[in-house]
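Q: What changes when FO1 is included in the input?
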Amino acid sequence: MRIVSLAGGIGGARFLRGLQAAAPEAEITVIGNTGDDITLFGLRVCPDLDTVMYTLGGGIDEEQGWGRAGEHHVVKEELAAYGMEPQWFGLGDRDFATHIVRTQMLGAGYPLSAVTEALCARWRPGVRLIPMTDDRAETHVVIHDEQGRRAIHFQEWWVRLRASVPAEEIVLIGADDAKPAPGVLEAIQAADAVILPPSNPVVSIGTILQIPGIREALEAKTVVGVSPIIGGAPVRGMADACLAAIGVETTAQAVLELYGSRLLDGWLVAEQDSGVALDGVRVVARPLLMSDPAATEAIARATLDLLK
Ligand code: FO1
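A: The predicted holo structure follows.
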């Protein structure tokens, strides 16, 4: 069975681990969000691609959900000793190696999709991980603070500000000129099923859907989504702050309507949200907390059942 799954960071990566357990024979292609990508100290950092790669490859820092297990931060401390900014983004020593390899390959002219394939040759995540695009498409956030109205990189809003300042706008810079990376449209067309895991609907799934051609390709397929909102609150992360920025309520119903019935054929919601409905979409309610691997596998299995 060929499955395509979109994915952002922690929630998507955890779900994919459950999907692998639920369908060990499936051929899974993951289309990864690159809107979070940022250049720091001259190095290209791809947080969501790395989170999927490390989580499925066994190198993730489990409780953080991002970055490497067994990390040290000597390089970070040395950079701070030189007064280098930013100091609010925690890059670990092991993680730096990933960004050095990626930046060196990008500098040699390899597209991000080829770089990702090369990095995955080491990590062997058990899925094919393709960035949504090889072109530059970065999420920036418009805020209004003491310095006036300005746009900052998503990571600064997310990590330094913890989304404490309201986002007036969330913009994927470069989206209109970006093309799906090689293999993305082909994988969607060849898929028996497509899954939208419980990643952030705005800055992870939403950004992938903004790459011209991807939403249209998905609308021709059978697509099932898993609600990232349980009982009016995001399970993890700050999806509520992102949804508020685009004027969408933080409910399973509102996110279902955001994706729409042209895209979704099935929608998995938590039991508290069993009243959720939309014409043309099959809604199923069940426990949705990915509290441990067994629970996550059961959620993935329920997602596959919805695809039938
Ligand atoms: N998230 C944080 O909250 N604080 C950090 O210092 C941080 C560093 C970091 C480094 C590498 C990486 O791949 C991810 C990192 N993240 C950090 C998580 C990151 O901001 C999020 O994973 C996404 O971009 C949102 O899904």
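Observations recorded in class: The first helix runs from residue 10 to 22.
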